[in-house]
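Holo prediction — NAP.
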Amino acid sequence: MNELPGQLPGQLLVIGGGRGIGAAIAACWPAQSTVWTRSGGVDATDPAALQTAFAAFQSRHGAPFALVHCIGDFAERPLLGTDPATWRELFASNVDSVFHSLQAVVPAMVALGRGRVILFAAAGVDRDRAMLRAPAYFAAKAAVVQLARSLALETAPRGLCVNVIAPGLIDHPHSHQDSQRRMLGRVPAGRLGHVDDITGLVRYLLSPAATYLTGQVLTVDGGLQA
Ligand SMILES: NC(=O)c1ccc[n+]([C@@H]2O[C@H](COP(=O)([O-])OP(=O)(O)OC[C@H]3O[C@@H](n4cnc5c(N)ncnc54)[C@H](OP(=O)(O)O)[C@@H]3O)[C@@H](O)[C@H]2O)c1
């Protein structure tokens, strides 16, 4: 799976690809990837900043072949212990940034009549159960799933495929390692995930083999019992 595809039919735009999973995805196609980060000057919670950045991108490359959105801050605290500022920050990072990114980029892909969109949720978010560890974060990720499902139906007639990857505990230098170590016993596979566990799936989703796959949540979690 990791061999597919060597080259993409257009540019890959990774929003939030400065480190972690997004950086690993961009590194799969170094010559075809554009990465936006907040520290690099594009704050994805700011619609004007996205519009400006996308105008520059489009004048150089036209519409991207693929948009991957990899932003999503995490906070582990109970619902009644979540203060309003944290709630707002989690929704700005996980949901507002998705909404504004889609609005800035996807119309050009629709006009082109082809493309792939990948958003990131979190393992368990599409299951019918409470997520006591981080309820505000999981509520925000549930909103991402709904946005993706709606966009998938809206854009399928225009040649787009929109899917969600729901990672479990993916280890990288900036991941939440204390929380991951505590949860490790609940992973039947017996190990934390690696960014390569995600990039293999991304390679597939951006390949010609995946043109009939849209509106899905693909969980990569080693069987995590959250
Ligand atoms: N790692 C895991 O185990 C795990 C598990 C479940 C779900 N996920 C989800 O998977 C996705 C990727 O996770 P990750 O661990 O790779 O994330 P990460 O290490 O936190 O990296 C996030 C990236 O997004 C950028 N970013 C953050 N806020 C931004 C903003 N407002 N505008 C533009 N860029 C911004 C950061 O750049 P700056 O440093 O410049 O801000 C960074 O490059 C996220 O949606 C996360 O919620 C991850």
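READOUT: The CA atoms of residues 161 and 212 lie 8 Å apart.
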